[in-house]
Amino acid sequence: MLFDWLLGKFSKDLAIDLGTANTLVYVKGEGIVVNEPSIVVLDEANGETLSIGREAKAMCGRTPQGVRAIRPMKDGVIADPEVTKLMIKHFISQASKPRSFISPRMVICVPSGITAVEKKAVVDAAEQSGAREVFLVEEPMAAAIGANLPIDKPVGNMIVDIGGGTTEVAVISMSGVVQSRSIRVAGDEIDEAIIQYFRKHYGLSIGNNAAEQLKFKIGTACPQSQEKSIEISGINLLQGTPSTLVINDAQIREGIQDQIAAILGAIRDTIEQTPPDLVADVVERGIILTGGGALLTGLSDLVSHVIQIPAVVADNPLLSVVMGTGRVLDDPELKRKVVIN
């Protein structure tokens, strides 16, 4: 017992939101110290790591032949174990300056629909990156804790976390997930839908970075009082030449309608399978939206209209998951209640 206390006292324990789009690291007693894109750039000839995180994202779509930008996380889980280990080690080294001589404990959030094989991949990657112990917590639970919902009370709390790889929908009561859905439709799928829309309807090829910017600059989930428009540049697929096009928010809305419908469907399905008393709580308390996707203009209004339950965006939607994971790290009793391994 004394030995465990000493290990905890002198190690820099970490909470990690290992996301498809971004990785955030919370250090016990310090707060969030890393918030970087989950991207690694490698030289394919010699396997050398050229860049990780923010610098790597700036290189996406701009690398020369033989240099590859890799997103090792896909749909919220590890797609490339070796590159994920490189990335985790890099972020841990950033978070652990000055270095601690004692390996840290790690609490890592994972999608609620994760398989046993995918869980093992996360634990293995963390252990091989230097973790002394690894604890897993479901993303919607972490998001609800980070959004300051009373998850330990006998009352229904509904959270919808729209990340880069997955959308996590859950109803939580008494520190447990009562009903949940995890769908692999989220920010990345929405970006890809924008890319395919302009290829199909206008013969214009645009990159991932451009699609992401369009989503947040003029993208809307439902019509707004004022139309937005912007000029974009890409490649004319018929002529193979640079081309520009002025587009508006209605076109983006049309391009992403299937993805938005899938998210609404996941919310509706979760509610239909939730006990009536808890649904009554949700109707009274509302639906909380977290994650980067929650920032899509008009999404909370659309959810409120279609689902007929008030929906609001959390105060810090981009940080809800990592802050909730950090609270699990800091609170042994909370950790005992919500870890899933």
Could you name the key traits of this structure?
341 residues, alpha+beta, Nucleotidyltransferase, domain 5, Actin, Chain A, domain 4, 3 domains, five-stranded mixed beta sheet, 13 helices, 27% strand, flat
Shape: flat
Q: What's the CATH topology label of the largest domain?
A: Nucleotidyltransferase, domain 5
Structural class call reads alpha+beta
The largest sheet, given as strand count, sense and whether it forms a barrel, is: 5 strands, mixed
Annotation, overall tally of beta strands: 18
Give the tally of structural domains.
Answer: 3
CATH level 1 name of the largest domain: Alpha Beta
Give the distance, in angstroms, between the N- and C-terminal Cα atoms: 21 Å
CATH architecture group name of the largest domain: 2-Layer Sandwich
Radius of gyration: 21 Å
Measured as a percent range, the helix fraction is 40-55%
CATH superfamily of the largest domain: ATPase, nucleotide binding domain
Strand content is 25-35%
Put simply, the count of helices is 13
Biggest sheet strand order reads 3-2-1-9-10
Q: Summarize model confidence as the mean pLDDT.
A: 93
Stretches with pLDDT under 50, minimum 5 residues: 1-6
